[in-house]
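Ticket #4471: structure output looks truncated?

Reporter: J.K.
Steps to reproduce: submitted the chain below (317 residues) through the standard prediction queue, then opened the result file.
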Amino acid sequence: MKALCFDRFGGPEVLYFGDAPEPEIGDGELLVKTKAIGLNFADTYRRNGNYHLVGKPPFIAGYEGAGEVVKVGKAITNIKIGDRIGFADVPLANAELVAVPYEKAIPLPAAISYETAAAALLQGLTAQYLTHDSYTVKPGDVVLIHAAAGGVGLLLVQLCKHLGATVIGLTSSAEKEAAISKAGADKVFLYKDNWKEQASALGISVVYESIGTTLPESMAVTREGGTIVFFGFAAGDPPLIDPRYLMDRSLTITGGDLWSYLTSREERFKRSARLFSWIADGIVQINISKTFALQDGAAAHTFLESRKSTGKVLLIP
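Returned output as attached by the reporter:
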């Protein structure tokens, strides 16, 4: 089979499209022919060497995708060849074939396409736990969302509005500002402007911090007793924080990681079913920014890291 590989850490130039061994599945696994693969900033972290990777070089990144079952392990009786499934947390996904453990296989409703599943699962389930578990968004909250034009950012805007909050988006360009406003944000600030002074006057209840380097600013604009949810570091590692600052203003910083919540097959079913219902009911709309052939993965990584994306980037085998 073909896969998007790299054998050393670095920029997009280390990626190449080459041959890789076809996965051998166990009794409790499915072999899935991928139809669409989700690209995430976490994949760039892995390529850079900042995230743990399975196995040894050549590495295959990717954790999210959707496709058709082409082989079924002997212990699996309720999934058959030809079934459509998605997955959000299965390694080695940047490949034509992926071995998916039974407990991580999410059957797709007829109304959910391969592309929608690959674009929605990881980021949609992330937005779900951020708004329901890390911090419970409620009517009257004022929410500040960093990188609000990204895949998770646009979903957060929509979900927070649905939950009754006032939503403030942060982004880098007027083009992205339009996308955030269209998603339902009440206000949008540009990073190049004096966003900190403007946000400080709004009584921010919670900041969704995914940039990393902006953590001190996020803390500064949050109202006394507010919360900062840290779930990414797209622009680099955050500076060290003196906990006395948290004490002085009664602030809370909490971390977020999807894998802490996808703890069983039942949890995956429950959470994905809720996400699919939000999509079916029009509560959230999945914005696919751009698709690339899997063999053009280096260009896809370059595009994602350029910050030009408004929504999800997909790889198509």
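Triage note (M.O.): checked the attachment and the full token line is present. The chain has two domains: 2-121+261-316, 139-255.
Status: closed, working as intended.
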